[in-house]
Amino acid sequence: MVSTKDRPKPVGYRPGVGSRASRIVNFVGLCLLSVVFLIPFYLIVRNALSTTQDITAPGWMWFPTDIQWGNFTELFNDEKVPMARSLLNSTVVSVLTTVGTLFLCTTAGYGLARIPYRHADKVFYAILATLMVPSAITFLPSFVMVSSLGWVSDLRGLIIPTLFNGFVAFLCRQYFLSFPKELEEAARVDGLGYWGSFWRIVIPNSKGFLAAIAVITFVTSWNSFLWPLVIGRSSDSWTVQVALSTFLTAQTVNLPQLFMAAAVAILPLVFVFLFLQRFLVQGVAQTGLKG
Predict the structure, then answer these.
(1) Which residue range(s) make up the domain with 30?
(2) Distance CA 6, CA 233 (A)
(3) Does residue 6 fall inside a structural domain?
(4) Does 2 fall in a domain?
(5) For residue 1, is it within any domain?
(6) Of 51, 70, 89, which residue constitutes the final position of a domain?
(7) Cα–chain center distance at 211
(8) Are residues 61 and 109 in the same domain?
(9) Residue 4, domain member (yes or no)
(10) Together in a domain, 149 and 233
């Protein structure tokens, strides 16, 4: 059998020319897409270091005439908007929501995928049915429940109602269905039950998937606005998104502070994506290996 290396090449063939050209085209295309995606970040940073006159000037300027580094200190010295407290609240809410969602949804997904139970399919379909219910329908009952518990203007009202996520539970079930059963069977031979196999075998070998789910949950919680706006009546319970909205009112619009606050608010998300982006792609891809 003749190998592909020994086959005759067409006239004028030069090895590596086509692949080199395709690499150059791909590189140029990626550079252009990178520039397009970075434009919003450039505008945020540019406006955050500008004055209101520079932002609203009719003529376009690539850089502000006088860089206003003082906008950063003014942001955190504003007595009306507790920006530092809002960043702390968002961090606490996002971290606890991520940890709680991972715990509840991974255990639910593993139970539906591995533990034999005759009503497991019915429970799974019920979870899927919750994904088809618009959030606007459940918003009012959730608020009434939180209000009756006295959790308005309390971080508990921001965290606990959002802990269980049907979509994350669905992703966990799909992933655990594709997890090698041989590893769990070997653990049971050693005397581990479902709980022991889950914590000692499945979780340590699912770090990539769990990191991807953690990134998605953290970003969703950090960017949440409507629920924190309704629950956070007091400024002490504001999240960073609610604090951002205070710079844009019907009476006044503080553009430099608004853009500076936006720049500060997206920094944690940028760091999360920089360090965990490979897990994000890998983990989402793994959820569809087996239905």
Answers:
(1) 20-70
(2) 75
(3) no
(4) no
(5) no
(6) 70
(7) 11
(8) no
(9) no
(10) yes
Domains identified in the chain, total number: 2
DSSP string, the chain: ---TTTSPPPTT--TTHHHHHHHHHHHHHHHHHHHHHHHHHHHHHHHHTS-HHHHS-SS--SS-SS--THHHHHHHH-SSS-HHHHHHHHHHHHHHHHHHHHHHHHHHHHHHHHS--TTHHHHHHHHHHHHTS-HHHHHHHHHHHHHHTT-TTSHHHHHGGGS--HHHHHHHHHHHHTS-HHHHHHHHHTT--HHHHIIIIITTT-HHHHHHHHHHHHHHHHH--HHHHHH--SGGG--HHHHHHTTB-SS-B-HHHHHHHHHHHHHHHHHHHHHHHHHHHHHHHHTTS--
Which residues in 265-274 are b (16+ Cβ under 10 Å) and which e?
Answer: bbebeeebee
Are 93 and 221 within 8 A, CB to CB?
yes
Q: How far apart are the first and last CA of the chain?
A: 40
Integer Cα distance of 55 and 78 in angstroms: 21
Q: What is the pTM of this model?
A: 0.80
> SS3 letters for 139-161?
HHHHHHHHHHCCCCCCHHHHHHH
Q: What is the pLDDT along the chain (291 residues), one digit of tens a residue?
A: 445 555 555 555 455 555 778 888 888 888 888 888 888 888 888 888 887 777 777 777 777 777 778 778 888 887 788 888 999 999 999 999 999 999 999 999 888 888 888 888 888 888 888 888 888 888 888 889 988 988 888 888 889 988 888 888 888 888 888 888 888 788 787 777 888 888 888 888 888 888 888 888 898 899 888 888 888 888 888 899 888 888 776 567 778 888 888 888 888 888 887 777 776 666 555 554 444
